[in-house]
Amino acid sequence: MKKPNSFNSAAFRFALLIAGMFGLGSILLLTIVEYSLRAYAAEATAVGLQAETAVLTEDWPDGGKQEVIDTIRQRQRSAYEQPFHYLLRDAGGKTLAGDLPPAAARAGWGHVTFVDDTPQPGEPGDPEMLQTLGTRLADGTLLIVGTDTFDVQKVRDRLAAFTIGSSAALTLLALIGGYFIGLMFLRRLERVNGAVARIMSGDMSERLPAIGMSPELDHLSTNLNAMLDRIAALMDGLRQVSTDIAHDLRTPLTRLQQRLEAMRGSDTVDAYEVGIELALGQINEIHVIFRALLRIGMIEGGERHQPLTPIDLSELVSRVAEAYRPVAEDTGKSLQPAIAEGITVIGDAELLAQLLTNLIDNAIVHTPEGTTITVALDMESGCAVVTVADDGPGVPSDQHSKIVRRFYRLDQSRHTPGAGLGLALVASIAGLHGVKLLIEDNKPGLRVTLRFPSAINILGGAYDTAEEFPAGET
């Protein structure tokens, strides 16, 4: 088996995708923060310049021009760093106060390059870009107030560096994590592939290990193992059927062969006709066995002629019971129905009729004269319950679970017609409908109970849902 490459795994590609999304998200976040910070800085700068201009000019009518000049000079001589720079020029263009260059002398909003610090000899100063607001006063004097955005720009630069660095770190972390997660996933998947390879090589006892990465994957492993259990059970059943066919058909085929060989020495037409009639009867017995096996196989394979639909179970049980009442009387037995009306279940009418027919026929064939057979239908805890019981010799308790097997027959039943497939067919039909099949001692006799998972009581006008039972449980 080729060893998987974690860099080429779906888990690593998914991690790579997540890392790319982290990177794109970081770029988008940086763009949004940059735009918001720039807008806030512009607004804050404008408000500060307007407020400072208002403070300088509010005393203009009282103190006049000299008051403004003194205020500007006082602020420039302050020991603390001032956030504003000024320029005051009269109507003739003469500078009265301030340290802004003449290029800043314009009314309204503007920008100017300004060297704040005194440079060392032979070195240029550090230029700054200032935003300015120029206001023309009543006598024509021009007041310009400027401020820098250095602190805001520093915050923007640091934020950009942090965003880029964190994005790169998260992307790298996602890639590294994706590699190790992919490697761990592939190692667990390799165990699953190994189990699959062993199953493909013929080891049907092998089961898939739990992947363990998430409940969904474990649930998938559980379902696949359940499917393997079902396949193994079907294969075991197929092997058992093959063995049973080889064993149980040997007797009728041997008898048929002996009958045909005996016919060779017959010298009359009547002897030939009798031999042919007996041979045809034995062939018909073999056909019955094969038809029953085919029917069981189709049912256990999930095939049915009709879809599951609402069925009047009361009418169906009554019809089958009434059909077998004369048959029971002809053999010296009594069939007593006790059927509640108005009970409906979901199922296949043809298969359910076959199920009831087999149960009643089984009770008639395997009981002596004078036996009373009871066929009952009633509602119990929201479930339709069908019971076929007799007061005959019954079946030993240790044989209850065996009589539903294919071709299984009790010693006392081997002299009666049949191949031991009637109750096997009943179990298959019950399993298809999710019906719980119980075989119990009737004290005396045998009681077979069918408990449907849900039923509709038409007369009661209510829909009752019962708990689900394991399909075909005995």
Explain what this protein looks like in three dimensions:
The protein is an alpha+beta fold and 474 residues long. The protein has three domains: 1-114 and 124-206, Beta-Lactamase (2-Layer Sandwich); 215-300, Helix Hairpins, CATH 1.10.287; 309-465, Heat Shock Protein 90 (2-Layer Sandwich). Helices cover 51% and strands 18% of the residues. It is built from nine helices and 14 strands. It has helices at residues 10-57, 60-76, 150-200, 215-248, 250-264, 269-300, 313-330, 349-365, 422-432, and strands spanning 84-89, 95-98, 108-115, 127-136, 142-148, 309-312, 334-339, 343-347, 372-380, 383-390, 436-441, 446-451, 454-457, 462-465. The strands form three sheets. The protein has a five-stranded antiparallel sheet. A five-stranded mixed sheet has the order 7-9-10-12-11. The radius of gyration is 49 Å and the shape is rod-shaped.
